[in-house]
Amino acid sequence: MKKRIIIILLLLSSYVFSENILNYYLNNFDKLNKAELNKILNTTESSKNGLNKIIHGSVLVKKAKHEWFLPLKYYYLYSGMLEMKEVVKENFDNLIYRYIRGKTAFEILSYDFARKIFINDFEYIYIRVNDDFKNKFDFGEVLYKLYRIYEFDNKEKAKSLLKKLKEYPNYYRLIYYEK
Question: Which domain of life is it from (predicted)?
């Protein structure tokens, strides 16, 4: 009986820990420096939890931006994207995993493979979004970034996204301030 209680408590603490890291990571996604990225890497490294693994992969990719040594930079990019690919493959319908991977891919659009991954993930979220996702995460960001991608390639798609973006005034304003 005591073993069961201990196992249940460990599982619950692991879940709470993962949720805290997720919130911290997404709230500070664009502000994390190299030291903070290393801290997150160390805390998520040994976890088998899908959420921690996707964050770990994303942090590896973000860490590549701080590397000047090309072989190491490409190693971080490749390992991070591969790790995220495996997590999404195991849990194909998880919108949170796709959100993190798509958000990470958007930051490295200069690499050809990233654009395709970003579009696949954010289009998947756009099609399958539910109220739970909209309440916890920034769906306006999904629409805005998709709009930015389609702005020059697919005017019709961009126009339809722009109409939906009117519901998110913070992002809608960005489009006109940037022009």
Answer: Bacteria
* Domain annotation covers residue 156: no
Listed in sequence order, the residues at least 6 apart from 25 whose beta carbon sits closer than 8 Å to its beta carbon are 32, 40, 55, 58, 59, 100
Q: Is residue 150 part of a domain?
A: no
Q: What is the DSSP string of the chain?
A: -HHHHHHHHHHHHHHHHHHHHHHHHHHTTTT--HHHHHHHHHHHTT---HHHHHHHHHHHHHHHTT--SHHHHHHHHHHHHHHHHHHHHHTTT-HHHHHHHHHHHHHTTTSHHHHHHHHHHHHHHHHH--HHHHHHS-HHHHHHHHHHHHHHH-HHHHHHHHHHHTT-HHHHHHHHHH-
Q: Are 45 and 59 in contact (CB under 8 A)?
A: no
Q: Specify if 71 maps to a domain.
A: yes
**Residue 9 reports pLDDT greater than 60:** no
The number of domains in the chain is: 1
Least confident of 7-11, 56-60, 145-149: 7-11
What is the per-residue pLDDT for 96? 95
Q: pTM for this structure?
A: 0.85
Residue-number span of the structural domain to which 46 is assigned:
2-137
Return all residues near 86 (Cβ < 8 A) that are at least 6 apart. Answer: 53
